[in-house]
């Protein structure tokens, strides 16, 4: 075991959830700082990514796809709308549904933040080769998508 590894209790080093949480903090350090400069937080980034990837989406569906409480999503959307990054409107097919979509500025911002996240995360996780990072990403994605499918209790 290397000196760096021996600083942590072995029990924690044997818990994938602890390791994943700590790696998340390492990988998000620079992104969190960039978001803070814009008055945003990680949930705002998740919403921007969701709308970037999905296009205009009903708020209820967006909350579900992001794993967010719908009432929390409303607050995140309020902030993003204030910043001119998101626009909301009633769904023309179902007036009860509120739709959210990126504005032109929101699309530009989302692309900038996504690019920054990928670049900074790769630098922060430079201890891994590209193949190792791809493997780690695939394994973590499998756990998350399995949880999304309700297969994990």
UniProtKB/TrEMBL annotation:
Q: Which residues form the HTH marR-type domain?
A: 1-145
SMART domains per UniProt: HTH_MARR
SUPFAM superfamilies, alphabetized: Winged helix' DNA-binding domain (SSF46785)
User: What is the superkingdom listed in this entry's lineage?
Assistant: Bacteria
* Gene3D superfamilies for this protein: Winged helix-like DNA-binding domain superfamily/Winged helix DNA-binding domain
Q: Which Pfam families match?
A: MarR
- Annotated PANTHER family: HTH-TYPE TRANSCRIPTIONAL REPRESSOR YETL, TRANSCRIPTIONAL REGULATOR, MARR FAMILY
Question: What is the protein's name according to its record?
Answer: HTH marR-type domain-containing protein
Organism annotation:
Gryllotalpicola koreensis
Q: What is the lineage of its organism?
A: Bacteria, Bacillati, Actinomycetota, Actinomycetes, Micrococcales
């Amino acid at each position: 075991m290397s000196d760096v590894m021996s600083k942590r209790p072995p029990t924690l080093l044997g818990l994938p959830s602890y390791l994943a949480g700590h790696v998340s903090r390492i990988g998000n350090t620079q992104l969190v700082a960039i978001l803070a400069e814009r008055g945003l937080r990680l949930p705002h980034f998740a919403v921007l990514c969701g709308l970037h990837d999905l296009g205009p989406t009903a708020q209820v569906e967006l909350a579900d796809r992001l794993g967010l409480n719908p009432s929390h999503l409303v607050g995140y959307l309020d902030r993003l709308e204030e910043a001119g990054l998101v626009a909301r409107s009633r769904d023309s097919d179902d007036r009860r549904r509120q739709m959210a979509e990126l504005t032109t500025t929101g699309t530009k911002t989302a692309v900038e933040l996504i690019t920054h996240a990928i670049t900074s995360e790769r630098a922060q996780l430079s201890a891994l080769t590209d193949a190792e990072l791809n493997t780690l990403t695939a394994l973590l994605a499998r756990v998350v998508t399995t949880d999304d499918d309700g297969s994990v209790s």
